[in-house]
Design goal:
298 residues, 53% helix, mainly alpha, globular, 3-stranded antiparallel sheet, 2 domains
């Protein structure tokens, strides 16, 4: 079996069997491609069925000089998944990465914004510009619903259930969930659709998409990043932020105000509560306040 054929089969497996989104498939594939490039550059002729633990270790050792510990751990994890797939398909009987230890890394805490910083970012948007109201609505939706950037760009008008107070979100692995939406965010979305979006000539296939670019197509992830980056520069914000920062802020602010962790897990679409528990490490001061307020022996 040749590497490129194995990689193509692996990508189909991730798509069909695992139901992963395209961005996740690209990420997993990137790890395998790095190994393929290494073998080609060093003129090492070995198939994915015969490559040994020692050859994988040498690749990791060589690559580790160029990447940090977190990227190295991610690379090992990606390769381990690939070889697990080959075992699953009975192409191999062992995984050459099983005895390779990933570097110990601390849990990276996400950056968050204060409510004042979010308000400052939004207030800096020039609403006199054609895309001003759209950009304000984008940030209000990211923060108000805790969405991933891909979930925002793929949001459909048919996903808006404002009478019930929810929006339908297509998350990782094409899994649907319903997320509560507050009245203020609803108001901004309705205003954008009625006053701005209606004047955009929508391209075929994007009639149901909520947020459109000037050409009538859906916004890209890069465009959302650019909008937020420019706003941060505009107000002189020193933090390095991205669309995901608003999702982190959404979860953190809810938790700080006493929201149930399980409820936050459902709204974020996390499969495991462990993923959501990272927000418990951000600020433990409010936990003391909860005990002092609600414990019967306070």
């Amino acid at each position: 079996m040749k590497w490129l054929i194995a990689l193509q089969d692996y990508q189909l497996y991730l798509n069909i069997e695992k139901g992963l989104a395209n961005n996740s498939i690209v990420s997993y594939s990137r790890d395998v491609k790095k190994l393929i490039n290494y073998l080609e550059e060093n003129e090492i002729t070995v198939s994915p069925l015969k490559i040994s633990e020692e050859q994988i270790q040498q690749f990791i050792y060589t690559t580790s000089k160029l990447i940090n510990a977190r990227s190295q751990a991610r690379l090992i994890s990606g390769l381990r998944n690939f070889f697990d797939y080959l075992i699953f398909e009975e192409f191999r009987t062992n995984n050459p990465t099983d005895l390779i230890d990933a570097p110990k890394i601390g849990r990276k805490l996400p950056d968050t914004l204060s409510l004042q910083e979010i308000d400052l970012l939004i207030s800096s948007i020039d609403l006199s510009e054609p895309q001003g109201e759209r950009n304000r609505t984008i940030i209000e939706t990211l923060y108000g619903c805790g969405l991933r950037v891909s979930e925002l760009t793929e949001l459909k008008r048919s996903d808006l259930f404002f009478e019930e107070g929810f929006i339908r979100v297509l998350g990782k692995g094409n899994k649907q969930r319903f997320v509560p939406i507050n009245t203020q965010t609803q108001k901004y979305i309705v205003s954008y659709i009625k006053n701005i979006r209606i004047h955009i000539k929508t391209q075929k296939g994007y009639e149901d998409t909520v947020f459109l670019n000037r050409r009538g197509k859906s916004l890209t992830r890069v465009m959302i990043y650019t909008i937020i980056k420019n706003l941060a520069i505009k107000i002189g914000l020193k933090k390095k932020i991205s669309p995901h920062t608003f999702r982190h802020s959404f979860a953190t602010h809810l938790l700080e105000r006493g929201a149930d962790l399980r409820a936050i897990q459902q709204m974020l679409g996390h499969e495991s509560i462990t993923t959501t528990e990272i927000y418990m490490h951000l600020d433990k001061s409010f936990l003391k306040e909860i005990v002092n307020t609600f414990h019967p022996r306070k």
